[in-house]
């Protein structure tokens, strides 16, 4: 697979996003033509991402935070909480990693990202052909592993889902990892959500 140095700009929103100056302490994502800006993550969020990253063998896998992804056929440049790809799958320069080079994407749900993580990102990552998407929800104290992406565009979704409660082991076959969730902290379920 070759590196993506520059993605063709197909709309004015994509041009605007490329030039956007994001205030310190915030991050911005382009999600199906909408620019979404959010505050930096909290300690619980960062602790979960650190725990997941530490359990994925560095020798075989690249584990990248703050990495933008290019989704083919989408006006989207999300920045998942953790991007996992095989070493050598994408070694070139550039700001974007093409979604087809990725093995697993991880999002840790926050009170403001619930709908995006369970909704639009689920559809976008499936549309991009990402083989596995792991949603970690510290409010519901569970992990949802989605595999087998199908269809394109807004109709895209994953065929297979597996739920693991915090404290149990989540099997990540695609990485050969048994993910220990026993040290994942929780957050109060501030607003009731009905996902998954």
From TrEMBL:
Pfam families: Uma2. Coiled coil: none annotated. InterPro entries: Nuclease_put_TT1808 (IPR012296), Restrct_endonuc-II-like (IPR011335), Uma2 (IPR008538). Keywords: Endonuclease, Hydrolase, Nuclease. The keyword Hydrolase applies. It comes from the Bacteria. SUPFAM superfamilies: Restriction endonuclease-like. Gene3D superfamilies: tt1808, chain A. Residues 17-180 form the Putative restriction endonuclease domain. The keyword Hydrolase applies. GO terms for molecular function: endonuclease activity. PANTHER family: SLL1072 PROTEIN, SLR1083 PROTEIN. This is Uma2 family endonuclease.
């Amino acid at each position: 697979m070759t590196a993506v140095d520059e993605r063709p700009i197909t709309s004015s929103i994509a041009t605007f996003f490329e030039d956007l100056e994001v205030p310190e302490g915030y991050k911005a994502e382009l999600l199906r033509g909408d620019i979404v800006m959010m505050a930096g993550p909290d300690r619980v969020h960062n602790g979960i991402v650190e725990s997941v990253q530490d359990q994925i063998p560095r020798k075989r896998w690249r584990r990248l935070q703050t990495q933008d992804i290019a989704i083919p056929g989408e006006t989207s440049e999300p920045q998942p909480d953790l991007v996992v790809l095989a070493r050598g799958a994408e070694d070139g320069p550039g700001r974007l990693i093409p979604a087809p080079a990725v093995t697993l994407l991880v999002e840790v749900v926050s009170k403001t990202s619930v709908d995006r993580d369970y909704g639009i990102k689920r559809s976008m990552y499936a549309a991009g052909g990402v083989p596995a998407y792991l949603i970690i929800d510290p409010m519901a104290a569970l992990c949802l592993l989605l595999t087998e992406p199908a269809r394109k565009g807004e109709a895209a979704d994953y065929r297979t889902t597996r739920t693991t409660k915090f404290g149990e082991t989540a099997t990540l076959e695609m990485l050969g990892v048994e993910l220990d969730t026993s040290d994942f902290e929780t957050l109060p379920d501030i607003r009731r959500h009905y996902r998954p």
